[in-house]
Design brief:
globular, Cyclin A, domain 1, 8 helices, SH3 type barrels, alpha+beta
């Protein structure tokens, strides 16, 4: 959906700090939040696309005033509250009043590295030939969906070329709402000068992985 989270290509947020040697997590509570994220027991129907969608539903003022790991916390709290696993009093006090009967045991701490390295596999069996081939010129569609989407707003309406084909992958737009559907996934290259007016190098490019339903022949 179109929301404040879709900040790609927008101005006014300052430069990205690319200096080497920065710590991965600058405070202890962020490291703890990272560990909780990988190990807490989720309600049924949980998936990564649903998690993203919940965070994208944050009010704009709350989203912009929260740091990265703050958003993780509010998202996870919303998921658990939506499932009836926690109440407002528990979130306020930080103390659990009950344990949901359907909740299993959380993974032990030593299982977290394995969970992190395994990741989530979105690949699915092929169901046919892809509509586009390497080198094809394609246009990112104009659309403004009410639900989840992974098509960045700054790419919509612009033309690029198919640089790679990744096979069939789960479509996050559908997965975020509890259904299963797969589509061909492509890497599409766009000239940066076609996306923004102030690009100084004519050779700079932006590469985006885009699902087939996001694209049309150019």
């Amino acid at each position: 959906m179109d929301g404040v989270h879709d900040m790609g290509g927008m101005q006014g947020f300052g430069p990205v700090d690319l200096s080497p040697g920065q710590p991965l997590l600058k405070t202890d509570w962020r490291a703890r939040m990272f560990g909780i994220e990988l190990s807490y027991v989720q309600p049924g129907g949980f998936n990564l696309d649903w998690m993203r969608h919940v965070m994208e539903c944050m009010p704009p003022s709350a989203y912009l005033s929260s740091g990265y790991f703050d958003r993780w916390y509010w998202r996870d709290a919303a998921i658990l509250a939506n499932a009836g696993w926690v109440g407002i009093d528990e979130l306020t006090s930080g103390k659990a009043a009950f344990r949901p009967a359907e909740a299993g045991d959380a993974p032990p701490p030593d299982a977290v590295p394995a969970i992190l390295s395994h990741g989530v596999d979105s690949r699915r069996p092929s169901k046919g030939l892809p509509a586009f081939r390497l080198g094809d010129r394609v246009r990112a569609k104009f659309h403004s969906p009410l639900g989840a989407t992974r098509l960045p707003r700054y790419l919509r309406g612009h033309v690029g070329a198919v640089e790679a084909y990744h096979g069939w992958h789960r479509l996050p737009d559908v997965s975020a709402h509890g259904d299963e559907q797969a589509e061909p996934l492509y890497c599409v290259g766009f000239l940066a000068r076609d996306l923004w007016d102030d690009v100084t190098s004519p050779r700079d490019m932006v590469f985006a992985d885009l699902w087939e339903s996001y694209l049309e022949p150019a």
